[in-house]
Protein 1
Amino acid sequence: MSNAIYATLARQQGLMQEMQVVSNNLANSSTTGYKTDKAIFAEYLVNSGPGEMSLSMGALAGHSFEMEQGGLNVTGGQFDLAVQGDGFFSIETPQGTRLTRAGHFQLSSEGTLIDTIGNNVLGAGGGPINIPPEARQVSISGDGTISVDGEQLEQIGIVTADGALMRDSNTYFSAPGGFKTATEFSVVQGALEQSNVSPVLEVARMIEVQRAYEAGQTLLEREDQRIGQLISTVRER
């Protein structure tokens, strides 16, 4: 197989991976708290053999996330919360603590504050948040302090990653380097943060990737024809 085919196949694979990222962004353009994903590619050199020039290849090296603030959708829900500024809600999952900007919360049958999956929302002290069953009015201030019928009860834990973030799911992030208490934030009660995906930009990128993939496919077909013609010429001699 020629070097041109090797290089083009690596490029086609990268384009397919980027198309998957773009498609996932579009699919989550209306998902609460979703952050736009960007594919990061890196170049590496492959030894082509003794006396041959090295071959430059590319591969997916990782992901980065656009963390810009999404718009606020005012719902009026008592346990719908949005974070403005830095920080994430901390959620207790079977895999460990995860961070999210999706603040559509509710109460479990036991009175524990949970997310839509049923995982506990953690307080500033790292434990679950329990709301008394007799509570009539629950208010949450900008610093995350929960007051029940005028009495302070608990504070919602708002944290930031101490290092890089890794996406676990569409709205969950893990922080391999740990996390720390956020300082520059404000919690808004009765609102949800919308996805920060720009559908127009993502569609434009999808078209660009598709055209690049089609061009690569054309190159592969022409190279295959060239090699076929070369083999036929050698056989006829």
Protein 2
Amino acid sequence: MKTTGDIVVIEDDPDDYEILLGIFEEVMKEKNYDNRVIVFEDSVMALEYLQDCTSEVFMIISDINMPLLDGLELYQTVSANPKFMHKGIPYVFLTTGAAHKEHVYKARDLSVHGFFEKPSSLREYKSLISDIMGYWQKTLVPFA
């Protein structure tokens, strides 16, 4: 498993954006991970970045409920792109408790790598991000 590369986070809520950025900074420092975290507040901008980027992408973490292009549509577009098709980049959803069951089922049907609810406390949020990062840093699944 490739453990280096950018972590692309797509989160349109400014408050959640700031919280996530702070949590990632803490987790990266504590776990000694050196991935660069890039956060986008707009799914279309994230898609443009992913299509044009020349750096390696380690993981994508996305909200589902976003204007213009929701997380499920973004996942389908990214996973259909030949540039990413065989790289097996982990794509994880991180969304509010308001997630509808149909989103969970649709994500499962699309073979999304993970679907998590945003925790209500900072401690739980940090623990979740640490667990997600730890899993993908240690898995032996052969991604390109």
